[in-house]
Amino acid sequence: MDLDSLIAKARASVDKVEPVDQEVLLGDEIVKVRFWPLTGGPWRALTATHPPRAKSVFDQNVGYNLDAVVRNYPKVFIVDGDEVVNVAVPVDPEDDPSHWRWHDIYDLLSGPDMKNLSSAVWGLNEYEHQKRFVAAGKASAGVRKKKRS
Question: Among 8, 24, 37, 52, which is most exposed with the fewest C-beta within 10 angstroms?
Answer without folding.
Answer: 8
